[in-house]
Specification:
There is one protein chain. The protein is an alpha/beta fold and 275 residues long. The protein has ten helices and nine strands. The chain starts with a strand and ends in a 7-residue tail after the last helix. Helix content is 39%, strand content 14%. The strands form two sheets. It has a seven-stranded parallel β-sheet. A two-stranded antiparallel ribbon has the order 1-2. Helix 1 crosses helix 2, helix 3 packs across helix 4 and helix 7 packs antiparallel against helix 10. The structure holds NADP nicotinamide-adenine-dinucleotide phosphate. The site of NADP nicotinamide-adenine-dinucleotide phosphate has 26 residues, from helix 9.
Amino acid sequence: MPMHRFGPTRRDVPAIGQGTWFIDQADRDAAIAALRLGLDRGMTHIDTAEKYGGGAAEEIVGAAIAGRRDEVFLVSKIVPDNASVAGTLASCEASLARLGTDRLDCYLLHWRGALPLEDTIEAFERLCRAGKILSWGVSNFYVDDLEAALAVAGEGRIACNQVPYDLTERAMEQQVLPWCETHGIAMVGYSPFGHGRFPGPQTPGGRLLAEIAAAHDATPRQVALSFLTRRPSLFTIPKAADRQHAAENSGAENVRLSATDIARIDGAFPLAPAP
Ligand SMILES: NC(=O)c1ccc[n+]([C@@H]2O[C@H](COP(=O)([O-])OP(=O)(O)OC[C@H]3O[C@@H](n4cnc5c(N)ncnc54)[C@H](OP(=O)(O)O)[C@@H]3O)[C@@H](O)[C@H]2O)c1
């Protein structure tokens, strides 16, 4: 599995990981089996959140990683309404308990809310000093939010910004990705299959993906995951509650897109769709 340096953390993390939104809606044993198969295949970056299923997703992740904690780069998130100083400390403890672990590799503010960033960041730094989290980051932050967080935290503290990023939703490449790269922050793309809206085989884009996939003995989704992680700053976290899906997603590690492939995908899924 290709490994990318995760922002300023000095950790190399699989470019393709595993998401868990709605994983609690799937058959529990199947979901755990899918996550474990993903771990077996190197997708050891697992993303979850206290919000997902009201903690149920974290419990499933806890079951999946039981006995394998050290293999995993474990990420969870706090909802902004909880992100006061005391609230962040309490939410983190609750997430650690549901996950059955003593530490998170990265803890994210799920999106920017009304509580002061200063308070959330102070709590994140306290959690770092206590060894409860090894790094922290943000999610759904645009450049003005990132500037605000940077002004509070200083350089070298924000590990990542987790944002929507799929073939049909590439807006983050315009300003957020360059900003993250300038400041050495990982950009973790979520919903890489558009949360169920992957380009169908009858669409022009879908046909191109199929053609490129055939040339690489791969699948269109594997080509998409490879494209979405084509820069060292990029990570992706497809969610799969199905073992076959997890196996297919992990197989993207073998796809090495050429500059021509990338240019063709770039043309078929333009950065800024025509108005
Ligand atoms: N920070 C945020 O605000 C935020 C927002 C959204 C998402 N996220 C994170 O990003 C993760 C991924 O995004 P997402 O869950 O929205 O959607 P996604 O990964 O784009 O798509 C998930 C859907 O694709 C299906 N799928 C996965 N692999 C497949 C394959 N190889 N073939 C066919 N279908 C496949 C899954 O089915 P099965 O489950 O049946 O396998 C599921 O229905 C989330 O789970 C979450 O961890 C973060």
